[in-house]
Write a structure and sequence with these properties.
This protein has 287 residues and is α+β, with helices and mostly antiparallel strands. It is 29% helix and 21% strand. The chain has two domains: 2-181, Roll (Nuclear Transport Factor 2, Chain: A); 192-285, no CATH class. Strands 1, 2, 3, 4, 5, 6 and 7 form a seven-stranded mixed β-sheet that branches. Strand 4 (104-110) and strand 5 (118-129) form a beta hairpin. The radius of gyration is 24 Å and the shape is globular.
Length: 287
């Protein structure tokens, strides 16, 4: 996956976009959306928005584009249309992915799209526009989501040495906003509603056993039981805390219960546990 993002795709996007035709599926889709408002970073520096004229002709920003015909024509379908009518119409770029602090990549398996398992890739970063004869570099931020699948044996992608095909590609362009947004936050944030729900849980509730059918993920102290009734048997305060933890984290009800039980119904500790064990949580732990 990292080879796909770092060495294959963006390298060709910057240098030889025509060769990307081999990587897109014949039924793949691509669109991009330009967010033209000044970024928070630029606003904080008293700067206005950049020049977006080269992007607006095909931008598929649905919050501004209401015409059905324009929405349809700006969605590129098929490898040739994507590359020649989409990608090659964008300004030349230079992506420097060598600095880990300037790029954030998330990926996970997803099913239900094709008979085979696909991988969803989300990339956040920045690039420079390459403008001939212009000394000052222009930086922009971007978010890009790919859905990729294994390249079938004998396919154009496989013949050209690519192990995967792009099924879907969505690009969002925005004014340069730096990379502080994905730096780790060492201070776990507890929302006011989560704190209020936690405050209503009495100390006695810590010993109330909770039943879950999911495999135990979070560490539970030896004096705590996990063989209790259904969530409906919880007190209103406990149910409120479970629901708020679900809303904030995206956990399903059983995993949220496990987390709260392991933390002794402490909101801050529950949030910290989610962060600590996030990488170990299976897909079934989420809503």
């Amino acid at each position: 996956m990292m080879h796909f993002t770092n060495h294959s795709y963006f390298s060709l996007f910057d240098s030889e976009r025509a060769l990307l035709e081999h990587i897109y599926d014949v039924n793949a889709t691509f669109s991009y959306s330009a967010i033209t408002q000044p970024s928070p970073l630029r606003r904080s520096q008293g700067m206005s928005s950049e020049n977006w004229s080269e992007y607006l002709l095909q931008s598929r920003n649905l919050s501004r584009l209401s015409d059905l015909g324009a929405r349809t024509t700006r969605l590129h379908v098929g490898s040739k249309d994507i590359v020649y009518q989409g990608l090659m119409q964008l300004p030349e770029t230079r992506h420097d992915l060598s600095e880990n602090s300037k790029v954030c990549v998330d990926a996970w398996e997803t099913g239900g799209l094709l008979p085979t398992v696909c991988i969803y890739i989300s990339v956040h970063g920045e690039f420079e526009e390459v403008r001939r004869g212009v000394q000052e570099s222009v930086r922009k931020s971007f978010d890009r989501t790919f859905i990729i699948a294994p390249a079938p044996q004998g396919s154009v992608a496989a013949v050209n040495g690519y192990p995967c095909l792009i099924i879907s590609d969505q690009l969002t362009l925005r004014g340069y906003n730096g990379s502080a947004g994905w730096k780790p936050d060492l201070n776990v944030t507890v929302t006011p509603s989560l704190a209020a729900a936690a405050a209503g849980v009495a100390t006695a509730l810590k010993s109330v056993p909770i039943a879950t059918g999911a495999p135990q993920i979070f560490p539970v102290s030896s004096h705590t039981s996990v063989t209790s009734p259904h969530v409906d048997a919880l007190s209103p305060e406990q149910q409120a805390l479970v629901q708020e933890l679900q809303r904030v984290t995206g956990l399903n009800v059983e995993t949220a219960l496990q987390c709260l039980l392991a933390s002794g119904w402490d909101a801050s500790k529950s949030m910290a546990l989610v962060q600590e064990y996030r990488a170990q949580l299976p897909a079934s732990a989420w809503q």
